[in-house]
Structure formats: structure tokens, C-alpha cells
Design brief:
heterodimer, A: 264 residues, MetI-like fold, two-stranded antiparallel sheet, 13 helices, globular, B: 283 residues, two-stranded antiparallel ribbon, 1% strand
């Protein structure tokens, strides 16, 4: 048994080193002045200053965030509204809504994006607009994750029971859905929304297919500048990673505060 | 159901926004894609599929995609399984640190991950330099810009999510089962091959599905590293629609449908296996 534990420990360390290696190298590289031999020669913050004052990069981050937040909000609203109908009025529609929402997990982003592009590009409708196209594809892309998050939360708080109780006290169902149920599942909602957000923020394939030249996000910025200074590029990678970290941490934190409040 | 829908009446409008998006941006484009794959300039044809299954360039793309997807998923799954096993036995601060590492690296993918690997193992990557300095040929001659070289990145992004999924499966294995198996004289290996793994099989197969889907749809990494020098299905599909070469939506649609069918067949096969094991659990 002791040898067993030892082996498990070694295995964990090996995998952790493998996972950490690119992170650490990128991190050190972003501070390195010159790195031609085994060890970097001196450290500098210049590459961070250079990257953080680069207008294209900053705009790319803002664009990336915008194009990720809007679809996540739209999808959440749509699914919350559809599940309200399912839970309160037409329970047998549940299976249909589930199929609606889970198909995109089989149809991957590339197929989704190319099919939408081929169908609507040059159609002369509003859907031919690349930004509109991109937003809606993103909506479909995050649907499975959002659906599962919301569904689990809604069933874990006994939505129907709450709505019926509130109705007896004279509040309309839709009103109590918005003012009682949704706020109470907000932590779960935020959690899945955030996961979707970071998935979209890290997307490159879909944006490359739909709007590569017209809408440059941070990811496309990285791709475009892949042959420039490795140090500046590493700094950009670290900055993007920190943004994702901050997103995760915020939600984690808000959940913790909520839990503390509850237990107090 | 119809009765319920009638009763709900105007309230069905709550479903409209979702239906609008799903129908317009999922069903219509997909149906359109299927139709387009059988069309050539307005007439029905099977030529697109004939080219996909006869021209060497597409056959190679399919073979490459299947090879890198299957092998990285299997290896990823094995790594995930053992890390999950090791983690399920530990607790406390070490474990939560490890979980944070997994969570952090699960968001590390696509372009940033590929760039990080270029700094580590690219033509003048840190480890390549170290390899040259110390005469370690395997590192000095590492060729990241190839199918085999790229493989390491595929394995990398298979680890975090898969391990998290495996860990939750391991946590369902109850301590009592192990104890009673040991009491009845089963060893560690016997416990896992006869009880542990069969019980976890649905979760293992589910994880495999996710890894497979992840790898076959991977686009950023091969686009950045090998682009046109090695053909992969995902790259070929996109090329047919937005590439620099002549765009061929008919052929592209056929390729995309083939990609879709591969995923569907794979999920179907694993679900068959899954059902077998779930039945076993019912007995």
C-alpha cells in the first residue's frame, strides 16, 4: 500500500509539472530581456508596458469581452424564459427544449460556423452582417452549458413550489419567477455564465471563420502577431490568462460570500 | 401534449426567443448544409462525397484527424484516469491546490496554449535550446510543427477537463465496496478490474466522448502550427469556405457532414458500450 501511495504521488507530480511547464516558461519569458541561451539575460517589464499600451491589443480585449458577454446574456434570457414555460405551463415540452439546447454539443463550432456562413452570407438580410452572425452562433455554441446550468439550478430550488406559494400570497407567477426564483439561483447562473464567457473569450476558430478581418479580438491579435517578439507575445498570453483568472475568482468569491451570509 | 400547448396559448411566446435562435442558426443552416453537400450548381449529385472518399488529399486528412484524435483521447483518458485516482485518495490543501491548477489550465487552450508551446518546444524554444546545449537529441531535434510534434499539445488540453470529470467519477466509488472486496480476498488490481472500472465505465466513456469531440474539432492549434503542410479534416472544412484557395461550398459541406457523422458514430458506439455496462449495473 505504501508503494502504491508513492507511485500515485509521483504520477501527480509528473502531470503537474507537464501542466505547469508551458505556463511557467511563458511567464518567465514575458519578463526576460533576451533569451538566447539556457537562462534569460536580465529581466524587464518593458514587454508588459509595450503590450499594455498597444491599442490594438487593448481594443481586442474589449471587443472579445463584448462579443462574449452579449451572447451569454441573450442565451441565459432565452433559456430562462423557455424553462419558465416548461416548468409552469407545459411540462411535456421539456424533452423538446432539451433537444433544442443539447444538439450543439454534438455539432461542433466549425460545422456550426461554416453552415451559418454559407447559408446567410450574401443573403441581403440582417443575418448577413458578420457581427450579428457571430453573436447568434455564439448563442448556439454556449447553449448546452447554459441549459444544463440553469436546469440544475431551477430544479434544485423547487421552482414550481415557490411559484405556487407566492401565487397564494397574491403575486403573479411570472413576477415571482423574476423577483424570487431567478435571484435565488443567481450564483449557479453566474457560474455557468462565466464558464461560457471564458470559453467564448478563448475562441479562435469561429471568429476566424466568420469575421477574421472585420472584428479583431485579442485571440486574433495573438494570431496576427505570432511572428513578432516572443516576449511581447508571452506578455499578451499572460495578460489574457490573468483576465480569465480574475473572471473565475470573482464568481468564486461571490459564491463564498453568499454561502457565508447563508450560514450566518 | 397538444392539449397542454393549447392551454398555455399565448404563453407559448416564452419559447419564441429560444426557438428563433435554434431554428434560424442551427436547424436551417444544418439542413442547408446537408442539401448543399448533394448539390453542384443547382443539380443533384453525389460527386462531392465521391471526391471526399476517393481523392487522396481528403482521405489523408480524415486519416490524420482520426489518428491524432483517437490516440490523444486514449492517452489523455489514461492519464486522466490515474490522476483522478491519485487525487480521489488525497485531501486537504494539496488537493485543492491541484484542483486550482486543473481549473486554471482548463481555460488555457487554443492560440495562447499553442504560443506557449512554441516558446517551450518551437524551433528556438527553451527546451530545444537546452537539448542542444546538453546534447539531448530528442529535445534538440523536436519538431513541433508536425503531426507527431503537435500531439503533445493535444494531450495537454485533454488533461484538465478530463481529470475533473474522472475525479467526480472516482468519488462515487464508496470506501465500503473496497473494504468488503478486500475482506473477501480481492486484491487492489482485482477490485479495480472487477468492480471499480465497470462501475465507472459510463463516466469513463462519457469522458472519452468529450475528449474525442474536443480533439476532432480542434482548429486553432493545427492552424497555427501546421496549417497547410499537414491536412486535417477541421482545417480542410474551413478552407473550403473561407480559405485562400478557390472556395467550394459543396465539397466543404460534404466534408463537414463527414466530420459530423464521425462524431455521431463515435458517440453512438460509446453509448452502445455504455448501455451494456449500465445494464450490468441493474442486474
Amino acid at each position: 500500500m505504501k508503494g502504491d501511495k508513492f507511485l500515485k504521488g509521483i504520477w501527480k507530480v509528473i502531470v503537474a509539472v507537464f501542466l505547469l511547464l508551458p505556463l511557467i516558461v511563458t511567464f518567465v519569458y514575458s519578463f526576460a530581456e533576451r533569451w538566447i541561451y539556457i537562462l534569460p539575460e536580465g529581466f524587464t517589464l518593458n514587454y508588459y508596458i509595450q503590450t499594455l499600451t498597444n491599442e490594438n491589443f487593448l481594443l481586442g480585449i474589449v471587443r472579445g469581452l463584448c462579443i462574449s458577454i452579449i451572447p451569454v446574456v441573450i442565451t441565459n434570457v432565452c433559456i430562462l424564459s423557455a424553462l419558465y414555460l416548461v416548468i409552469v405551463h407545459v411540462p411535456n415540452l421539456e424533452k423538446t427544449v432539451q433537444i433544442f439546447c443539447l444538439i450543439p454539443s454534438t455539432v461542433n463550432g466549425i460545422i456550426l460556423a461554416t453552415s451559418v456562413l454559407a447559408t446567410y452570407a450574401g443573403s441581403g438580410t440582417i443575418f448577413a452582417n458578420r457581427i450579428v452572425m457571430l453573436s447568434f452562433i455564439y448563442c448556439v455554441f454556449v447553449m448546452p452549458m447554459t441549459y444544463q446550468g440553469i436546469r440544475n439550478s431551477l430544479y434544485s430550488v423547487n421552482t414550481l413550489g415557490i411559484l405556487e406559494a407566492a401565487e397564494m400570497l397574491g403575486s403573479r407567477k411570472i413576477r415571482s419567477y423574476v423577483t424570487i426564483v431567478i435571484p435565488s439561483i443567481l450564483p449557479g447562473l453566474l457560474n455557468s455564465a462565466l464558464m461560457c464567457l471564458s470559453a467564448l473569450f478563448g475562441d479562435f476558430a469561429i471568429i476566424k471563420i466568420i469575421a477574421s478581418s472585420q472584428y479583431e479580438t485579442a485571440q486574433s491579435y495573438l494570431y496576427k502577431n505570432r511572428h513578432t517578439d516572443t516576449q511581447a507575445l508571452s506578455a499578451a498570453v499572460v495578460i489574457l490568462l490573468v483576465i480569465t483568472l480574475i473572471m473565475n475568482y470573482t464568481v468564486h468569491r461571490s459564491q463564498q460570500i453568499k454561502n457565508e451570509k447563508r450560514s450566518a | 401534449m397538444i392539449k397542454n400547448i393549447k392551454k398555455a396559448g399565448g404563453k407559448m411566446a416564452f419559447l419564441l426567443p429560444l426557438a428563433f435562435i435554434v431554428i434560424l442558426f442551427e436547424w436551417i443552416p444544418l439542413a442547408d448544409m446537408v442539401i448543399r453537400s448533394f448539390m453542384d450548381g443547382g443539380t443533384f449529385t453525389l460527386d462531392n462525397y465521391a471526391s471526399v472518399f476517393t481523392k487522396p488529399v481528403y482521405l489523408v486528412a480524415m486519416k490524420n484527424s482520426l489518428w491524432i484524435t483517437l490516440s490523444s483521447s486514449v492517452i489523455g483518458l489514461i492519464i486522466d484516469f490515474f490522476v483522478g485516482m491519485a487525487l480521489s485518495g488525497s485531501k486537504g490543501k494539496g488537493k485543492s491546490l491541484y484542483l486550482s491548477l486543473l481549473n486554471l489550465t482548463s481555460t488555457f487552450s487554443g492560440v495562447p496554449l499553442s504560443i506557449a508551446f512554441i516558446t517551450v518546444l518551437g524551433t528556438s524554444g527553451v527546451f530545444v535550446l537546452i537539448g542542444r546545449q546538453f546534447g539531448i537529441d530528442a529535445l534538440a531535434n523536436y519538431h513541433l510543427y508536425s503531426l507527431g510534434g503537435m500531439f503533445v499539445i493535444y494531450v495537454y488540453f485533454q488533461i484538465p477537463m478530463g481529470t475533473l470529470l474522472m475525479l467526480s467519477a472516482f468519488e462515487k466509488i464508496r470506501k465500503e465496496w473496497k473494504e468488503s472486496a478486500y475482506l473477501m480476498g480481492a486484491g487492489n488490481i482485482k477490485f479495480w478490474t472487477h468492480i471499480g472500472i465497470p462501475v465507472m465505465m459510463p463516466a469513463i466513456l462519457g469522458t472519452f466522448n468529450m475528449l474525442f469531440a474536443n480533439a476532432i474539432a480542434s482548429y486553432a492549434t493545427p492552424y497555427l502550427l501546421v496549417n497547410n503542410s499537414i491536412s486535417l479534416l477541421s482545417i480542410k472544412v474551413v478552407d473550403m469556405f473561407v480559405g485562400d484557395v478557390k472556395q467550394r461550398p459543396g465539397l466543404g459541406s460534404a466534408l463537414a457532414i463527414v466530420l459530423l457523422v464521425i462524431v455521431v458514430v463515435q458517440i453512438g458506439l460509446t453509448n452502445l458500450c455504455k448501455r451494456h455496462f449500465e445494464k450490468g449495473a441493474e442486474k
